[in-house]
Design goal:
With about 160 residues, the protein is an alpha+beta fold. It has two domains: about 70 residues, Pre-PUA domain, domain 1 (Nuclear Transport Factor 2, Chain: A, Roll), CATH 3.10.450; about 80 residues, Archaeosine Trna-guanine Transglycosylase, Chain: A, domain 4. Helix content is about 25%, strand content about 35%. The longest helix is centred in the first third of the chain and has 15 residues. The chain starts with a strand and ends with a helix.
């Protein structure tokens, strides 16, 4: 496994990439430095002042184990029946969603939480807008990009 700390200039570039990729604005001090860990080929964990992201290829997404990072994104709460499908990699379907925040446009990153304790179990880009999801009764709403027990979850154990 490789670990490294980015220089200040490279950290600024990494922060800009993450912000533009995810469409969010991180409030970080000027001295914020990114540290990276690559437990397996093509998977890089980027840590920034309490936030943690996963980089796979050119895509960035929040790591499920980082509560501070997950709080930056809108969420959808699913019922208990959907959990077993989501942790096996299925996309989030509208019938399983109990509550949802307005996540805006298609492609917005959404955190999927279970209903009982509110724990995050999956994260991924929306396949429909938030307003459209409210009006739907069936169909896929969120693509499951990262879920509890997947390769990113297990790779993070070695970091």
């Amino acid at each position: 496994m490789k670990k490294w700390v980015l220089s200040r200039r490279d950290s600024v570039e990494m922060i800009a990439k993450i912000q533009s990729s995810l469409g969010l604005s991180l409030v970080l001090p000027k001295s914020a430095q990114a540290s990276c860990a690559e437990p397996e080929e093509g998977v890089v964990f980027v840590a920034l002042d309490g936030y943690e992201f996963v980089q796979s290829g050119e895509k960035f997404f929040p790591f499920l184990g980082s509560q501070a990072t997950l709080a930056l994104f809108p969420s959808a709460v699913v019922d208990e029946g959907a959990i077993k499908f989501l942790i096996n990699g299925a996309d989030v379907m509208r019938p399983g969603i109990r509550k949802l925040d307005d996540w805006g446009a298609v492609g917005s990153m959404v955190v999927v939480k279970e209903e009982k304790k509110g724990r995050a179990i999956a994260v991924g880009p929306s396949t429909v807008s938030g307003a459209e999801a409210r009006g739907m009764s069936k169909g896929s709403c969120v693509k499951n990009m990262h879920h509890v027990g997947d390769r990113y979850w297990n790779a993070h154990k070695s970091v």
